[in-house]
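User: Structure with pyridoxal-5'-phosphate, tokens only please.
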Amino acid sequence: MLTPNLTVNASGHLCIGGVDTTMLAKTHGTPLYVLDENMIRENCRGFERVISEEYGGKGLICYASKALSCKELYRVVDSEGLGCDVVSGGELYTALQAGMPAEKIVMHGNSKSNSELQMAVSHDVGRIVCDNLPELKRLDQIAGAAGKTVNVMLRIKPGIDAHTHDFVKTGQIDSKFGFALETGEAMQAVKAASLYPNLRLVGLHCHIGSQILDTEPFAEAARVMLRLMNQVRAELGITLTELNLGGGPGIRYTEHDDPKPFGEIVRAILAALKGICTELDFPEPFVLFEPGRSIVGGAGLTLYTVMAKKVIPNIRTYVLVDGGMCDNPRYALYHSEYEALIANKAGQPRDERVTIGGKCCESGDLIGEDMPLQAAEEDDILAVLATGAYNYSMASNYNRNPRAEIVMVRDGEARTIVKRETYADIIQNDL
Ligand SMILES: *Cc1c(COP(=O)(O)O)cnc(C)c1O
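Assistant:
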């Protein structure tokens, strides 16, 4: 199985966290998102362990909300000592409602509205990561009007593109996020930020990409950022004390993915950081990480009911399910690959190759193509694995499909953490 929390029971049914997925489908209906609480907690602890072992605990792990934002998930990560990052007023609101302490929240966004900035300031969010000069100016005014001094970090484009196989260190000026390093823009932004009376510039931030499978792009980003902090100290006489290295560690979506475990990635980053600090005689900064996918991605799966199988001779076989791009748009968006299996036939070999089609009125509404699967029949339960991140958070009401329910399993028990939307929910704002 893809992850160790997935097992097959004596009836040949797929289990997650010790719970039979076919029973979950029966009692909660489909489509259904399922999250394994213990695995999420273990992932949180894994990050924290490395920070404490390798870096004396001088850091904060901020779970990246955009991977999956709902109240219970904030409660779980908060109880493990994590903070969170948010990228909108909606995520901030949800985190605060769940009781996430504001000082552990990092506010992101390349185009934050004044009301979002006001909300962050009025709740005393721990750090606001500023993306551009107009935002710095607006934030200073908003903080001043509130009589507050706000902790600010600056989002830097470190010039590392980790999305290619052999990552490259140029060509990243063309991004809508942050201040470019190569052009001197980053240095100017530090200078500007340091002059605003209501802003307290605490450090720098970068995020080099997502689903990154190797350690070196991260280690290189740490070195590049520390060199910039050293340059800031030399040229402006300002010693920044915090470095936020964003998220990005990859997970196993299919058996072909072989990501470095995130523990190894964080270890490599911290080793690189300590090395460069020694080399430059720079005080080791407080570090922040913002993992999203690597906390929740592998801990989730989605259950569907097979509605029909459509064999197009010599072309392909469609297995049609009762969900699709409305609950998982990632294949439609970027052809992301997943593993799937028939939950009630999990012990049998996957000896057919199929295209999984959704219920939405789009030919591109697929969960995947050319996927190995057990022989599917009507009413089978299809499980798509590793859907914990960027599925529910990207779900829509396309075709006015209600958003699916989320259940959390733990030690053989399951509980609903987000209710299934009703048709009444869908029209509640219609006049
Ligand atoms: C997307 C994002 C993250 C989380 O990325 P993952 O790949 O899910 O770990 C963290 N920080 C920022 C700024 C992001 O944009």
